């Protein structure tokens, strides 16, 4: 083969990276401009920074409430999904239960279904069926934590399974022979060995919950609204507050970006149900 | 071997949650699809009306139009992503300065919330403030207005999807290309095969399982696209970008037509299940060959 200059490749990738990064850069540009300047000729390079949009978002009580909700819902859901997924995988890999492979596949079908299909039934169930007296799950944080399990719990089960499969059963069995209880085996032998897998699962489920929009938009009104739904509230028929919208977007983006640096290698495995190891 | 009872106890919470928030809604929507129910209509009761909803659906121009644009969107987006993803994956197979950094940058869009992607592209393409319409106007005198031109809105949603998801295709194809053995390629070169022959007769058949799996994953995700399109165009102008997910969202909530909305949901779910089944088969087949 012909030897090409490797710097040509680099030049090509600088171009590709520019295409990838420019939209994100433009988001930042809009977020640090006063509203009046937006409608003049767009300039690509910034001469001055206008931070008021960020201050407005940060000091807005409602938006801070949304931020808090997002934080609580995604953290609660990530912990719940990962914990339940861990127990489920332990059961699926350590016991000879009838039909367990069917159960395993069935779990992922819950994630494959388009969320739009479930909007209506979930809305009706949460207002009319899943209720205790006057308390309904609609517009509550606990309700959203449970609803997000429909996509995050199957994901946790599928990504944790290879980890648990990789831990030799002889290890548990040896501990049983020594007289350890089931709980002791899970908490002191299996759990420590699963930590890396659990960490990745926890982080990815957190991001998926943090990024969710459609279900939050329909199943919450005010008290459990998340940051992603707050974003759409600034797009109205009477006029969009572009700067504020961009600033909220940046706020929503930052945690995901931080997390991204932690689990970069695992993202592809996460998005392909573990079919591809990145 | 521990007792199976413990196994079921550990599995029970997961199954219970998935049953309550996955299976029950499904059964409920299936049941409702055979009924007429609009709580804010003159008659707010739930009335059994057999297959009437489905009969209406088959002749519903709005639904068929939505199905049509969805198929067009999925086709253009997935095909572009495959071609671009393959070219980029091949470009990654050589060593060059800065490879790791470029890989990181290229992966970046994958982690972004669809709603954020939608808002970014809205900021870029909205005529009064966006950079793209402005540059197209000053450089080429072209008028890009996604609020008025159906073709422009459609194209921008496709480009947005390509920007967001091509990295997934690139990375899955890199994984496939890296795992290929070098022998067949060396042999083909000795036999004097040209680049095109090598691609069609060696590379493509060998990475086919990965390509098929990637296609179905993208297919499934593209079929359920809602957030970014809702944010970017809201399904408009007219119904140019009213993809199925957007259609359901718009049909069900403002109109509270619960029975009919359920019927649409059931059909869309059915289409997805068919796609999922194909995905499952295509992903299992390569594993079983090993």
Automatic annotation (TrEMBL), chain A:
Q: Which Gene3D superfamilies match?
A: MetI-like (1.10.3720.10)
- ABC transmembrane type-1 domain spans which residues? 67-263
Lyase listed as a keyword: no
Localisation per UniProt entry: Cell membrane
A GO CC term?
plasma membrane
The keyword Transport is assigned to this record:
yes
This protein's membrane topology, according to the annotation, is: Multi-pass membrane protein
**TM regions (residue ranges):** 7-28, 71-92, 112-130, 142-160, 242-263
Superkingdom, natural source: Bacteria
Q: Which UniProt keywords apply?
A: Cell membrane, Membrane, Sugar transport, Transmembrane, Transmembrane helix, Transport
Biological process, per Gene Ontology: transmembrane transport
Q: Principal place where this protein is found?
A: membrane
Pfam families with a match to the protein in the record: BPD_transp_1
What does this protein do, in the record's words?
Part of the ABC transporter complex MalEFGK involved in maltose/maltodextrin import. Probably responsible for the translocation of the substrate across the membrane.
Q: Which family does it belong to?
A: Belongs to the binding-protein-dependent transport system permease family. MalFG subfamily.
User: What is the protein name stated in its UniProt record?
Assistant: Maltose/maltodextrin transport system permease protein MalG
Q: Which organism is it from?
A: Halovulum marinum
Kindly list the organism's lineage: Bacteria, Pseudomonadati, Pseudomonadota, Alphaproteobacteria, Rhodobacterales
From TrEMBL, chain B:
Record keyword Transmembrane present: yes
Q: Where in the cell is it found?
A: Cell membrane
Q: Which residues cross the membrane?
A: 7-31, 62-89, 110-132, 152-178, 198-220, 258-280
Q: Does the keyword Transmembrane helix apply?
A: yes
Where is this chain primarily localised?
A: membrane
User: How is it placed in the membrane, per its record?
Assistant: Multi-pass membrane protein
**Which parts of the sequence belong to the ABC transmembrane type-1 domain?**
63-279
Q: Which GO terms describe its cellular component?
A: plasma membrane
Q: Which InterPro entries match?
A: MetI-like, MetI-like_sf, Sugar_ABC_transporter
* Any one biological process term the GO annotation gives: transmembrane transport
Keywords linked to the UniProt accession: Membrane, Transmembrane, Transmembrane helix, Transport
UniProt lists the family membership as follows: Belongs to the binding-protein-dependent transport system permease family.
From the Swiss-Prot or TrEMBL record, give the protein name. ABC transporter permease subunit
Q: What is the lineage of its organism?
A: Bacteria, Pseudomonadati, Pseudomonadota, Alphaproteobacteria, Rhodobacterales
């Amino acid at each position: 083969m012909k030897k090409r200059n490797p710097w040509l490749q680099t030049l090509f990738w600088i171009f590709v990276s520019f295409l990838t990064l420019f939209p994100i850069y433009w988001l930042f540009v809009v977020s640090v401009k006063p509203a009046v300047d937006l409608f003049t000729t767009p300039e690509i390079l910034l001469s001055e920074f206008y931070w008021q949009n960020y201050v407005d978002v940060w000091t807005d009580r409602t938006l801070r409430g949304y931020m808090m909700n997002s934080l609580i819902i995604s953290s609660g859901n990530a912990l719940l999904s990962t914990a339940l997924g861990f127990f489920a995988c332990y059961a699926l890999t350590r016991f000879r239960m009838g039909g367990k492979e069917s159960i395993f596949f069935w779990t992922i079908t819950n994630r494959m279904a388009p969320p739009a299909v479930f909007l209506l039934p979930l809305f009706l169930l949460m207002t009319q069926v899943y209720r205790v007296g006057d308390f309904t799950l609609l517009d509550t944080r606990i309700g959203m934590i449970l609803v997000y399990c429909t996509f995050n719990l199957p994901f946790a089960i599928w990504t944790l399974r290879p980890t648990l499969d990789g831990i030799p059963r002889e290890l548990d069995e040896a501990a049983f022979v020594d007289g350890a209880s089931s709980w002791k085996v899970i908490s002191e032998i299996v759990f420590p060995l699963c930590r890396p897998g659990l960490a990745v699962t926890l982080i990815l489920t957190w991001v998926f919950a943090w990024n969710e929009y459609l279900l939050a938009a329909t199943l919450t009104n005010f008290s459990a609204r998340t940051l992603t739904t707050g974003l759409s509230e600034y797009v109205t028929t009477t006029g969009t507050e572009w700067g504020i919208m961009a600033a909220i977007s940046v706020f929503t983006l930052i945690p995901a970006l931080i997390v991204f640096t932690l689990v970069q290698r695992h993202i592809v495995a996460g998005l392909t149900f573990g079919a591809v190891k990145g | 071997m521990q007792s199976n009872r413990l196994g079921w106890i550990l599995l029970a919470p997961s199954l219970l949650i998935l049953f309550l928030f996955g299976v029950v809604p499904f059964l409920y929507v299936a049941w409702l699809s055979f009924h007429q129910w609009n709580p804010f209509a003159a008659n707010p009761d739930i009335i059994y009306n057999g297959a009437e909803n489905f009969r209406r659906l088959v002749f519903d121009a709005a639904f068929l139009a939505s199905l049509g644009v969805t198929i067009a969107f999925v086709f253009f987006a997935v095909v572009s992503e495959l071609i671009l993803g393959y070219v980029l994956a091949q470009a990654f197979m050589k060593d060059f300065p800065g490879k790791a950094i470029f890989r990181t940058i290229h992966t970046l869009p994958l982690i972004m919330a669809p709603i954020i992607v939608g808002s970014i592209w809205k900021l870029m393409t909205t005529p009064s403030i966006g950079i793209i319409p402005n540059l197209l106007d000053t450089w080429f005198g072209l008028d890009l207005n996604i609020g008025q031109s159906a073709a422009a809105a459609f194209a921008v949603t496709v480009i947005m999807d390509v920007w967001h998801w091509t990295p997934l295709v690139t990375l899955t194809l890199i994984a496939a290309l890296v795992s290929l053995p070098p022998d067949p390629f060396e042999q083909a070169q000795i036999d004097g095969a040209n680049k095109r022959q090598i691609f069609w007769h060696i590379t493509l058949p060998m990475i086919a399982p990965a390509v098929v799996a990637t296609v179905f994953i993208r297919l499934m995700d593209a079929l359920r696209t809602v957030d970014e399109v809702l944010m970017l165009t809201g399904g408009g102008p007219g119904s140019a970008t009213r993809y199925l997910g957007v259609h359901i969202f718009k049909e069900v909530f403002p109109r509270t037509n619960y029975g009919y909305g359920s019927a649409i949901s059931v059909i869309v779910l059915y289409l997805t299940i068919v796609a999922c089944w194909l995905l499952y088969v295509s992903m299992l087949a390569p594993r079983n060959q090993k």
